[in-house]
Amino acid sequence: MAKKLENFDANLLKELEAELRRLGSDYQKFKDDNGNTIKSIVEQLMRKADKEEMLALEAKLLEKLNEMLQKLLGMFADKKDTNKRLSHLEKNVRISIND
Q1: What pTM was estimated for this model as a whole?
Q2: In this predicted structure, what is the pLDDT of residue 25?
């Protein structure tokens, strides 16, 4: 075994050690970057609403939209009611004029 080590080039050993340190550094950077990415994803998932919350929000929004629509429809007079009132007003005006 000693014979094989004697033939081993010292420069090659230094290059291999440098490459190993570089790979170790790259691995650590990769590990840190992925750890931060996973942590960020988990934090985002924790802030997201679940399906039940979304369904409740949808129901609440639909209820509010319905209320707004009813108020809006209440602002406009019914055509039949308006015609009836106009007829009644015309009748009262004719009676007033004829008297």
Answers
A1: 0.42
A2: 94
